[in-house]
C-alpha cells in the first residue's frame, strides 16, 4: 500500500543573525574616518528636520534629547601587563598639544611659496608672451616635486595639444630657472645643467656624466680609462659631482600633503602616567529637536503617511545620536586597551613596541575582533613620538631566544635600521651579521626575514651599501 503524495505543513525553529538598518548604520559609522563621519552626519542633518548640528561643547546627545557627554573615565582592565593610570576623557581642544606653546599668529598668515609657483613666475618673466601663459602653466604643473620633467617633449605636446616647438621653448626657459637643474629629463641632464652653470662641463666631466652607471658600481679603473684622467683627477671630479644637488626641486617646500587629523590623543599626565583622550574637534555632535517633533504631532490634521514619516524621522535622529555616542565609547575603549599594552612604546619609542593582534584587544574589551578592526580602521592617534595609524600598533610576534617575552616585528625593523645607520664605512653589516647581532640581543629571526625587513625600509644590500660608501672615501 503506497501513500498518496500530499501537502504538509511543518514548523521549524531556527536561529539567524539579522542586521537591522540601524545596526548596519552603526557599523558604517564605526568604520568611517573622522572626515567621512563629518560628511555623513552633515548629510543626515540636511535630510532630517529633527536633527541639528550641536555646539562643540554641547556633548553627544542621547535619544531623549538631553545633553549627555561621552564617557570621561573608565577603569584599566585587570589583564593589563603592568599597572598604569589611563584616564579616558573627551579632549575639548581641537588639536594635539604636548606643551603650552602656540603657533604664532603671523605664522598662520603666511605660507612658503611652492616649487611650481616659483617656476611659473620665472618662466613667464623669461618668455613674456601672453599667448604662452596657459601652456607654461600646464608644463610647469607637470614638473615633479624633485624638479624633474621626465616626460619627453613629444609626449607633453600630445597630452596638452601643443606644438612640439612650443614645449621645447618652455623647457629651455624652465632649465634656465632657479634652482639650477630643474626641468631635466634624467639625473645626467640635471647634473650637466648644474656643471654648465659652474663652467665645469669639460669633455672629461661630460664623459663621467655619460657613464653614471659605472660610477654607481665604483668601477674607477674603467672610468679613468674612458675619461682619460688619473686617479687623483677622478676623485676630484667625483667630489665635485657629490656637491651637486640631484633633486633640486626639494629645496622648495613641496605641496602640503593632506593633513592627518588624529582621532585620539595619548598624553602624559606629568606624574609618570598616561591619559587617552578623544579629539573632540573631530566628533560631530547632533541635537535631536524633540520639541519640534512634539509640536508637529499635536496637529490633528496630519494624515497617516505624514505621521509615519515624522515617526520614522525622529527614530532615525535618535538612533544617530545613540550611534555617535556608542562610536565614541567604543573608540575610547579600544584605544585604552591598546595603550595599556603599549606603555613601553610611549616611554621609549618604536623600538619598544610590543606584539599585539586584534584578538588581544577583543579579549580585553569584550568586543568582537571585527568590531576592533572597524574601530581602528582609518583612525589615527597622536602620541609624544608622532601621529600614527592605530593599525600601526598591531604587529606580529618574533620569538625570543631565551623564552622571554616575544618581540614586535616593527620593533625588530627599527633595531635593524639603527644597526645599519650606525655601521662604519669599513664595516658594513651583512644580513648574516645582523642575524647574529639580533640573536645576541635575544631575538630569534631568520636571514630571509632580516632581508625582507631591510628591503621594506628601503635599505640597500650590504654590497650596494659598501659601494656607496666607497664613493665617500
From TrEMBL:
The entry's keywords: DNA-binding, DNA-directed RNA polymerase, Nucleotidyltransferase, Sigma factor, Transcription, Transcription regulation, Transferase
Domain RNA polymerase sigma factor 54 DNA-binding: 308-467
Domain of life from the UniProt record: Bacteria
Start and end residues of each RNA polymerase sigma factor 54 core-binding domain: 105-292
Keyword Transferase: yes
InterPro entries, alphabetized: RNA_pol_sigma_54, RNA_pol_sigma_54_core-bd, RNA_pol_sigma_54_DNA-bd, RpoN_core-bd_sf
Function: Sigma factors are initiation factors that promote the attachment of RNA polymerase to specific initiation sites and are then released.
Protein family according to the UniProt entry: Belongs to the sigma-54 factor family.
Protein name listed in UniProt: RNA polymerase sigma-54 factor
Organism in which the protein naturally occurs: Benzoatithermus flavus
Amino acid at each position: 500500500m503506497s501513500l498518496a503524495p500530499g501537502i504538509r505543513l511543518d514548523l521549524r525553529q531556527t536561529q539567524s543573525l539579522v542586521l537591522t538598518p540601524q545596526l548596519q548604520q552603526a557599523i558604517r559609522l564605526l568604520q568611517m574616518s573622522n572626515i567621512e563621519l563629518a560628511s555623513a552626519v552633515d548629510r543626515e542633518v540636511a535630510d532630517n528636520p529633527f536633527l541639528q548640528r550641536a555646539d562643540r561643547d554641547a556633548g553627544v546627545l542621547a535619544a531623549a534629547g538631553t545633553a549627555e557627554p561621552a564617557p570621561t573615565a573608565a577603569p584599566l582592565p585587570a589583564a593589563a601587563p603592568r599597572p598604569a593610570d589611563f584616564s579616558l576623557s573627551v579632549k575639548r581642544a581641537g588639536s594635539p598639544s604636548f606643551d603650552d606653546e602656540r603657533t604664532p599668529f603671523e605664522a598662520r598668515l603666511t605660507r612658503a611659496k611652492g616649487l611650481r609657483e616659483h617656476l611659473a613666475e620665472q618662466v613667464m618673466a623669461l618668455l613674456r608672451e601672453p599667448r604662452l601663459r596657459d601652456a607654461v602653466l600646464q608644463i610647469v604643473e607637470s614638473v615633479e616635486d624633485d624638479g624633474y620633467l621626465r616626460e619627453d617633449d613629444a609626449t607633453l605636446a600630445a597630452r596638452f595639444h601643443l606644438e612640439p616647438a612650443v614645449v621645447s621653448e618652455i623647457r629651455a626657459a624652465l632649465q634656465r630657472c632657479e634652482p639650477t637643474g630643474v626641468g631635466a629629463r634624467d639625473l645626467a641632464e640635471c647634473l650637466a645643467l648644474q656643471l654648465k652653470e659652474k663652467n665645469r662641463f669639460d669633455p672629461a666631466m661630460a664623459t663621467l656624466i655619460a657613464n653614471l652607471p659605472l660610477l654607481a658600481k665604483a668601477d674607477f679603473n674603467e672610468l679613468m680609462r674612458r675619461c682619460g684622467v688619473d686617479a687623483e683627477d677622478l676623485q676630484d671630479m667625483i667630489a665635485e659631482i657629490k656637491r651637486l644637488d640631484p633633486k633640486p626641486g626639494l629645496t622648495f617646500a613641496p605641496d602640503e600633503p593632506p593633513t592627518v587629523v588624529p582621532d585620539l590623543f595619548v598624553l602624559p599626565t606629568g606624574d609618570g602616567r598616561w591619559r587617552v583622550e578623544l579629539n573632540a574637534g573631530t566628533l560631530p555632535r547632533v541635537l535631536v529637536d524633540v520639541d519640534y517633533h512634539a509640536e508637529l504631532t499635536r496637529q490633528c490634521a496630519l494624515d497617516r503617511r505624514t505621521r509615519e514619516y515624522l515617526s520614522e524621522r525622529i527614530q532615525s535622529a535618535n538612533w544617530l545620536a545613540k550611534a555617535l555616542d556608542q562610536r565614541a565609547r567604543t573608540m575610547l575603549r579600544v584605544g585604552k586597551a591598546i595603550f595599556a599594552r603599549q606603555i613601553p612604546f610611549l616611554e621609549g619609542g618604536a623600538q619598544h613596541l610590543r606584539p599585539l593582534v586584534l584578538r588581544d584587544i577583543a579579549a580585553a574589551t569584550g568586543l568582537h575582533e571585527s568590531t576592533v578592526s572597524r574601530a581602528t580602521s582609518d583612525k589615527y592617534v597622536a602620541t609624544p613620538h608622532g601621529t600614527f595609524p592605530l593599525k600601526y600598533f598591531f604587529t606580529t610576534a618574533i620569538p625570543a631566544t631565551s623564552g622571554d617575552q616575544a618581540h614586535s616585528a616593527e620593533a625588530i625593523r627599527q633595531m635593524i635600521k639603527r644597526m645599519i645607520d650606525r655601521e662604519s664605512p669599513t664595516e658594513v653589516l651583512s644580513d648574516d651579521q645582523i642575524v647574529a647581532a639580533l640573536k645576541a640581543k635575544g631575538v630569534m629571526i631568520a636571514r630571509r626575514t632580516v632581508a625582507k625587513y631591510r628591503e621594506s625600509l628601503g635599505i640597500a644590500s650590504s654590497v650596494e651599501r659598501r659601494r656607496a660608501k666607497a664613493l665617500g672615501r
